């Protein structure tokens, strides 16, 4: 069932039960994610997560050592 539409439907239903908010990107968020690229070694998805945390003035909760490059730019809670 891996990779099937049925599998995605089940995953989507599970995700919709979690207390998370899906946030659409915009030009400002994309530009900030682009600025984080200069730090190097941070994936595109991670740069967007960092940009969102910075914009919202909140912590980014992670255990991913990639984010050490951004510690001076965003607030991180290490797990």
In short:
The protein has three helices and two strands; from the N terminus they run αααββ. With 79 residues, it is mainly α.
Walk me through this protein's architecture:
With 79 residues, the protein is mainly alpha-helical. It has a domain at 27-79. It is built from 3 helices and 2 strands. It has a two-stranded parallel sheet. Helix 2 packs across helix 3. It is globular, with a radius of gyration of 15 Å. The N and C termini lie far apart (32 Å).
Oligomerization? single chain
- 3D shape: globular
Order of H and E elements:
HHHEE
The total of helices stands at 3
Radius of gyration: 15 Å
- Strands, total number: 2
Topology at a glance:
Layout (H helix, E strand, L loop, with lengths): L4 H12 L10 H10 L7 H13 L2 E4 L12 E4 L1
Parallel strand pairs: 1-2
Helix pairs in contact: 2-3
Keywords for this structure?
mainly alpha; two-stranded parallel sheet; globular; 10% strand; 2 strands; 79 residues
């Amino acid at each position: 069932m891996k990779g099937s539409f049925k599998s995605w439907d089940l995953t989507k239903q599970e995700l919709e039960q979690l207390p998370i908010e899906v946030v659409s990107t915009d030009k400002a968020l994309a530009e900030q994610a682009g600025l984080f690229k200069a730090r190097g070694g941070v994936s595109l998805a991670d740069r967007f997560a960092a940009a969102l945390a910075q914009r919202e003035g909140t912590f980014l909760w992670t255990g991913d050592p990639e984010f050490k490059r951004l510690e001076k730019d965003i607030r991180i809670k290490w797990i």
